[in-house]
Amino acid sequence: MTRKSTKIVLMGKRTDEGENLQSLIKDLFPKSLPGNFIYSISFCYDDDFVFEIPKSDIPETISLDNPLNIIEDVDYSYDGHLEIIEIILDLNNVKGFLNKGSNDILSKIFPN
């Protein structure tokens, strides 16, 4: 049994001017993700086909500025309409990174 948590997908209906969620709150989203933060990436198509990118094919850095760039980054194509790019983070790796960063900052402020 995998240890995946419940997925939360944040979506938004476009504004009357055509703006999407990412363009409205882009400063809250990271511009990229390190590959070691990623547990898995899946492409979900409108015909219910789901392709999970092999872990070995996940690039060192994933750019989130344009989600369709992820397809080019992993060099994958499928004829169906792509509905969702699902990225599941490995929170153990994220937590380790944050803890190390916090410890490094605190050790400079409060040396032993």
Key traits:
three-stranded antiparallel beta sheet, alpha+beta, 112 residues, globular, two-stranded antiparallel ribbon
Describe it for me?
The protein has 112 residues and is of the alpha+beta class. It has one domain (31-109). The chain has three helices and five strands; from the N terminus they run H-E-E-E-E-H-E-H. It has helices at 21-24, 69-74, 91-109; strands at residues 32-34, 38-45, 50-52, 61-63, 82-89. The protein is globular. The protein starts with 20 loop residues before the first helix and ends with a helix. 6% of the residues are buried.
Question: What topology emerges from the helices and strands here?
Answer:
Layout: H1 21-24, E1 32-34, E2 38-45, E3 50-52, E4 61-63, H2 69-74, E5 82-89, H3 91-109
Radius of gyration, Cα only, in angstroms?
17 Å
- Spatial arrangement of strands, main beta sheet: 3-2-5
- Contiguous uncertain segments of 5+ residues: none
Please give the alpha-carbon distance between the first and last residues. 43 Å
What is the helical fraction, as a range of percent? 25-40%
Brief description of this entry?
By secondary structure, the protein is α+β, with helices and mostly antiparallel strands. 26% of the residues lie in helices and 22% in strands. The chain has one domain (31-109).
